[in-house]
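name: query_chain
kind: protein
chains: 1
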Amino acid sequence: MYRRLPAIVAAALLAASLAVAQPLPAGAAGPTMPAGFTDQLVTNVAKPTALAFTPDGRVLITTITGQLWVVTPGAGLLATPALDVGPQSCAIHERGMLGAAVDPGFATNHFVFLFYTVKNGSVCGQNVDPSPYNRVSRFTLPDTNVIDPASEVVILDHIPSRNGHNAGDVHFGADGLLYVSTGDGACRLDPSEDTLCTVDNNNSRSDSQLLGKILRVAPDGSIPTGNPNVAATGSRRCGDPAAAAVVTGPGPCLETFASGLRNPFRFAVRPGTSQLYINDVGEQSWDEIDLGAAGADYGWNLREGHCAVGSLTDCGPPPAGLTNPIFDYTRSSGCSSITGAAFVPTGLWPAPFDGAYLFADYVCGKIFRLAPLDSGGFAMADFVTGLGASSATSLAFGPSADGQSLYYTTFAGGGEVRRITSAGTPPDTTTTTTTATTPTTTQTTPTTTTPVSPVGPSNGPARAGYWMVGTDGTVYPFGDAKSYGNAPTTSAVDLEPTPSGNGYWIVDDQGRVFAFGDAVARGNADRAKLSPGEKVTSLSATPAGDGYWVFTTKGRVLTFGAAPSFGDVSNVALAAPVLDSIPTATGRGYYMVAGDGGIFAFGDANFYGSMGGKKLNAPVQSLVPDGDGTGYWLVASDGGIFAFQAEFRGSMGAAKLNKPITGMVRAGHGYLMVGEDGGIFDFSATPDGFKGSLGAKPPAHPITSVAVLAN
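structure:
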C-alpha cells in the first residue's frame, strides 16, 4: 500500500452556517498549546483544504468537494460559495479543490488562483480513460463575492491524476511568480505500467513529466527565464493550456522548478522572499522538509528523507546530483503525514516563535515548530497538540481582530477553520528574537580565567559566550566560555569547540592539532601531503565530536576520526586561496570559501550564491550559515557583509576599522565579527551576544579566530 492522506468517505457537503470566532466552552476538551495562546473557531466548513486572504480581510477557503467559500469581516461565512466547480471536478482519491493563492495585485485586478481536479469525462476512478487531471486557473473575485465561471483563465493544465498523490498547493513568491506543488501520481503514468506504484513509481525522476515537482510560472502562465530547463535541449511546455490532452514526449518540462518529490501537499514561502520550505509526505520511513532551490532534485524514489528509500540506517550524504532535506522525522512517534506549513511573520509573536517555521501532521494532530539547535540543524518542538486525527490540513497567517492570527483547517469535528492568537509572551525565553540591532563595539577587559578540569556535556542552565585565539595560541574566553589551555605555536589559525563546550581544538597553519578539555586529538595534517606554500586555514568538528576536518589554502580536505570526505578542490586552479571552511549542521557536507568570495559546496551543503567574479574592496574572510541552515553570510576583512538567502543584520562596511576583520561566527539569529585586535562587533540580535572584547587592551599577537559556545 502506498501511504497518503487517509481516504475520505464521500459525503454531502454540510450546510455551512456562520460561526463567530469563539473559544471552546469551559471544560471542553481541546488542543494544548503554550501559555499566552488561544484557539478559536472561525467557521464550520466540510472538508476544508486550503486558505488564502485578500488584502481587504476576506478569508478564502477551498474544499475537497470543489467549492470556494468566503468569510467576510462583517458577515462571516457567506451562505453560498463564491465558486462551485464540484459538478466538473472529482472529490475522491485525494482530488478536489486543493489550493488557493491571491494575486499580489489583487487590490486592482481581483485575481485569485485555484488548483482543482477536472473530471474529464463521467468517471472519477483510478486508472480510467479518459482520466481526470489537475489544473491551475485564474478567476476574478469581485466585491460581490460571486465568481463568474467565464472569468476563468487556465494557467497550467493537464497535470495527470490517474491515481493519487496530487499535491495541490499554490503560493506567490516575492519575485511575483506562482509556485505550484504536484505529487508523483502514486503509480507510473504509462497505462502499461500503472501497476508499478509506491517505490517502483519513478514519475518524479522524469524531467518530461509534471509529476513530483515544484512548478513555477508567471501569473499569466508564461515561463520565467530563470527556470532550470529553459536552456535545455528539447524543452517544452508540459502543462500547456492550449493542448487538448496530457502533453507527452521526451523533452524536459519548462514549468519545472524542482523535482524528486513524492507528495508535497503543502509548502510555505518565507515572508518577503521567494524561499520555499516544502513539506513532502513520505512512503514508510520519513516525512521531510526540503529547502526549495531552482534545479534541486530531492531524490524520490531513490531517497526518502536523508536515507535510501525504505531505510532508517542507510543514510548520509545523497548521491551526486541529489539534495537531502533540511529536516525529516520518522513514524515512531505516531506522526506520519506532514501537512500544513507557515512562517510566523517577523515581529508578530514573541520568542521563540518569532519568524519560526511551523508545520503540522495530519495523522497525529499536532503543529510543530522547527527549532534551530545551537549546534546546528533542527529539532521538532511541540507547539499545539491534541488537535485530533485528520487535522491541520493547512496553515496560514491572516488578518483577525487581534491583528494577525494563525489560521488552520481541519477535517475533525465535521470540518472547521480555526485560528490561534498570541496574547502574551510564551514561557520559553531561551530562544532569541530576530530583531536586527546596531553593532555593539563596547570594549571591556576580558575576564581572567585559569585552566580547569574537563567536565561532561552541559545539562545545566543555558550558557552564552565565546573564545578568541591569537596566532601565538593564547585563548581568550568571554561569558560562560572557559579556558582549557593555550597552544604552543606561533601560527594558530583556528579554534573549534567540542559539542559539549567543555573543550576545544586549536590548529596552526602547519596542520598541527592541539586538543584541550574533552577534545580528543585524532591526528595532524601530514606536511608531506601538502604542496609548497600550502597552509592549513581551519578545522571543523563533526556534530558528534568524533572526528574533524582540516582544510587548506589550496582547497584540500584532510579527514580524521569519523569525519567523512565529501570531496575537495585541490586539483582545481583557484583564483584565490581558500580562507575558511565550515560543515553543514548535519555533518553530511561542508562549504569552503575563497578570498575572492567563491563558494564550494560539498555533500548536503546547498549553494545559494557567491561573490566569485565580482570586484571586492577587501578579501572575504569567513562564511557563516544562518540559524535555519537555509542561507549564509560572507564577511570581508573590511567588515562588509554579503547575505545569500540569509537576513542582512548589518555590517561595518562604511566604518573605519582599527584592524581588519579576521573571523565571524553565528550568534542568535545573526553574527559576531572579530577584528585582528580582538574587537567584537555584535550583530547577533540577542542580549546574549556581546560578552566582551580585547579592544581596550589589544593582544600582543593578532587574533585569528572566534568561536561561540554551544550550550
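note: Helices lie at 106-109.
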